[in-house]
């Protein structure tokens, strides 16, 4: 089941990459890009996941602020990998900032060309260049 | 079916295969994973280990410990990327930054305004508590700042832009708050350098000279609550920086259409 979930995540990445490449609409491209970002983040989180076992009743937290070495070792056995989570946290924030930049760039393009369709934008540009050189 | 579509289907199959084959061959370890990597075990064991203070991070929240302590410099550069992306968005509209909007809006109805005023306080409280608890629970500067940033966006929509233009809070204030917070992120880790800690690290120096009480570090506990030393301070600065950055970005994006077209004037020739 875990394998099926992982492969379905990869299919999700492939479909959203198709969206980024094939769709001429910039807003659709942008939506597909955010789906790629989230799918890859989820993939990284899954890499750090550890299978939950029935014997682990306690959640992975320290119950005492002055932990004994035994409590620390038990904590290590219960917790999942924190490194992918930290990297995903970084990726989400940078992704958010880049998304804001992309949104304002798309908005700028829309105000300039009155369309967000890449095909039409390149057509307008081509006509413009032809008009200038004629 | 056009050739283009066949090409895209093949491309999708290729992408899926390129990622799945290494996974099936064990690139990520066994699936489903049953054991932690040994580096993860080290992080988990040392992060809040009071018996080995030369390698600890003073924070029981291991993700926060990695983000701000073990890989603190990474996060500094990430903050720079974040800063630059928002500056890039602002530069696109540099001509109208800080100007008053031409449309005098009145905002939504009285009931919505009063209801929102209460909700805004709640949003800010949740955000601030997320920032301040970043070293003991999941959360931190980025998350708390992003939660708090919802407040100015809702306020802009509900109370209208005129309310913001009339208030004392201007674009320049947000820019200064943001720059000061980022300066804090850079300067706060430098202070313990002359004392008993490293840049971006809470780990104690092992030289005997640094063991005397005049060489302070950022407090690892206040009363009996773990403060994560430097992590708590960086979280606060980062929260303020993220909050003001998103507030700025949305102040620009939510200008009226009439004013937003101003930077485009004169760009008719040559795209």
TrEMBL record, chain A:
Q: How does it sit in the membrane?
A: Multi-pass membrane protein
InterPro entries, sorted: CPA3_antiporter_subunitC, NUOK/Mnh_C1-like
Provide the transmembrane region boundaries.
Answer: 6-23, 86-110
- Which keywords does the record carry? Cell membrane, Membrane, Transmembrane, Transmembrane helix
Taxonomic path: Archaea, Thermoproteota, Thermoprotei, Desulfurococcales, Desulfurococcaceae
In its UniProt entry, what is this protein called? Na+/H+ antiporter subunit C
Query: Can you name a GO cellular component term?
Result: plasma membrane
Principal localization reads membrane
Organism name: Ignisphaera aggregans
The places in or outside the cell where this protein is found are: Cell membrane
Source taxon at top rank: Archaea
Pfam families annotated for this entry? Answer: Oxidored_q2
TrEMBL record, chain B:
Main localization of the protein described in the UniProt heading: membrane
Which membrane topology term applies here? Answer: Multi-pass membrane protein
Any one Pfam family here would be MnhB
Give the location in the cell: Cell membrane
TM regions (residue ranges): 7-28, 80-97, 117-136, 142-159, 180-200, 230-255
- This protein's UniProt keywords: Cell membrane, Membrane, Transmembrane, Transmembrane helix
Superkingdom in the source lineage: Archaea
Which residues lie in coiled coils?
none
- The entry's protein name is Sodium:proton antiporter
- This protein's species is Ignisphaera aggregans
Q: What is the lineage of its organism?
A: Archaea, Thermoproteota, Thermoprotei, Desulfurococcales, Desulfurococcaceae
């Amino acid at each position: 089941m875990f394998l099926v979930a992982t492969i379905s995540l990869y299919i999700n990445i492939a479909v959203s990459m198709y969206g980024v490449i094939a769709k001429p609409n910039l807003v659709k491209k942008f939506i597909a890009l955010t789906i790629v970002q989230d799918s890859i983040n989820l993939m990284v989180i899954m890499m750090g996941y550890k299978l939950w076992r029935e014997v682990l009743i306690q959640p992975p937290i320290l119950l005492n602020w002055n932990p004994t070495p035994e409590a620390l070792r038990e904590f290590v056995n219960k917790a999942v990998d924190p490194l992918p989570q930290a990297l995903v946290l970084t990726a989400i924030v940078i992704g958010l900032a880049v998304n804001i930049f992309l949104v304002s760039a798309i908005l700028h393009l829309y105000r300039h060309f009155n369309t967000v369709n890449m095909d039409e934008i390149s057509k307008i540009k081509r006509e413009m260049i032809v008009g200038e050189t004629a | 079916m056009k050739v283009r579509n066949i090409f895209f289907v093949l491309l999708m199959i290729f992408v899926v295969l390129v990622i799945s084959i290494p996974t099936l061959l064990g690139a990520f370890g066994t699936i489903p994973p049953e054991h932690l990597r040994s580096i993860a075990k080290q992080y988990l064991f040392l992060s809040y280990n009071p018996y080995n203070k030369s390698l600890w991070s003073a924070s029981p929240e291991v993700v926060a410990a990695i983000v701000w302590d073990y890989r603190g410099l990474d996060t500094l550069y990430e903050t720079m990327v974040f800063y630059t992306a928002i500056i890039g968005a602002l530069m696109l509209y540099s001509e109208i930054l800080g100007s008053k909007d031409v449309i005098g809006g009145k905002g939504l109805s009285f009931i919505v305004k009063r209801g929102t005023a209460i909700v805004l306080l709640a949003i800010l409280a949740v955000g601030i508590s997320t920032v301040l608890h970043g070293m003991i629970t999941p959360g931190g500067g980025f998350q708390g700042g992003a939660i708090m940033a919802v407040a100015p966006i809702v306020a802009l929509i509900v109370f209208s832009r005129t309310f913001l233009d009339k208030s004392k809070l201007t674009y320049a204030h947000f820019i200064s708050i943001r720059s000061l917070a980022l300066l804090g992120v850079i300067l706060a880790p430098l202070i313990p350098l002359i004392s008993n800690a490293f840049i971006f690290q809470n780990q104690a120096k092992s030289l005997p000279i640094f063991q005397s009480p005049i060489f302070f570090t950022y407090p690892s506990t206040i009363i009996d609550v773990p403060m994560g030393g430097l992590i708590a301070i960086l979280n606060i600065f980062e929260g303020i920086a993220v909050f003001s950055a998103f507030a700025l970005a949305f102040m620009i994006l939510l200008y009226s259409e009439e004013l937003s077209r101003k930077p485009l004037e004169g760009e008719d020739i040559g795209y």
